[in-house]
Design brief:
With 225 residues, the protein is an alpha/beta fold. The chain has helices spanning 10-22, 33-42, 59-68, 84-93, 105-121, 154-165, 173-181, 191-203; strands at residues 2-6, 26-30, 47-51, 75-79, 97-100, 128-131, 134-137, 142-145, 148-150, 171-172, 212-215, 219-222. Calcium ion is lined by residues 8-9, 51, 53-54.
Amino acid sequence: MKILVVEDEPKLAAFIKTGLEAQACAVEVAHDGTRGRQLAQRHPYDVIVLDVNLPGLNGFAVTQALRQEGNATPILMLTALGSVDDKLTGFEAGADDYLVKPFEFRELMARLRALHKRGGEKSEAVPVLRAADLELNLGNKTASRGGRRIELTARECSLLEYLMRNRNRVVSRVEIAEKVWDIHFDTGTNTIDVYVNFLRKKVDKEFARKLIHTVIGTGYILKDA
Ligand code: CA
């Protein structure tokens, strides 16, 4: 098993790492949430062990960010706080299991094995990107908003995927041209604006809350925050 451990208490992190390595697991440790999120974005892990109270991003925020990006790696949350509220917050953010500190190592190991097994079974699950009530299923290339299905062409789907992966960040026409069309457009072309308008008609037109916005002189932003 390849495991990412995100834990800011050095002693506990070392204890978990040593124990897992003795069980033939490959372990990487991050000591804050921001680093943990980066590692999880860059490398495929079988399971992530994630502390809740962390410097930088806390465990809930890390979980939520990874899930929104379509990362489905099973997450086991660790916390000193055992309240029902924390458990619910963790599960709502997208965690798969929960372990309260202090715990016995064999308990941790049993939970990780169970998560790994479950993760393997659902590893063919298709990634779904979410922004507000908009969902994009990258498997069958369909979107839905507020439960209503939206049919997209292949190009519209790629454009929406790009906007959703970069949500809450302004993306320029040049970036869109390079990343979605893989070519460099003449500055005079309005192809991108045309496609963004197609997409808006499908995604925003019938809804009070608009997600795709024009940033005059710069480009576009898909906003859900
Ligand atoms: Ca901590």
